[in-house]
Amino acid sequence: MNRIGLYTLFRKETLRFLRVATQTLGTPIVTALLYLLVFAYVMEEHVQVYEGVRYTVFLIPGLIMMSVIQNAFANTSSSIIQSKMTGNVTFMLLAPLSAGEIFVGYVGAAVLRGLLVGLGVSLAGMLVVAVTPAHFLWMTAFVLMASALLGSLGLIAGVWADKYEQLAGFQNFIILPLSFLSGVFYSIHSLPAFWQQLSRFNPFFYMIDGFRFGLIGVSDVSPWLSLAIVGAFLVVTAGLCLHLLNTGYKLRN
Amino acid sequence: MTRPAVRIDAVDKRFPGGVHALDSVSFEIGEGEFFGLLGPNGAGKSTLISIAAGLTRADRGRIEILGHDVVGDFRRARASLGVVPQELIIDPFFTVRELLGLQSGYFGLPRGNREWVDELLTTLDLVDKAGAITSTLSGGMKRRVLIAQALVHRPPVVVLDEPTAGVDVELRRLLWAFTKRLHAQGHTIVLTTHYLEEAEALCGRIAILRKGRLATLEDKRELLARHPFRFLDLELTAPLRQLPDGIVDLVDAHTDTSISLRLHKKRDSISGVLETLRHAGIDFTDLSVREPGLEDVFLELTRDGGDGRAAS
Question: Where does the pLDDT of residue B248 fall: very low under 50, low under 70, confident under 90, or very high at 90 and above?
Answer without folding.
Answer: confident
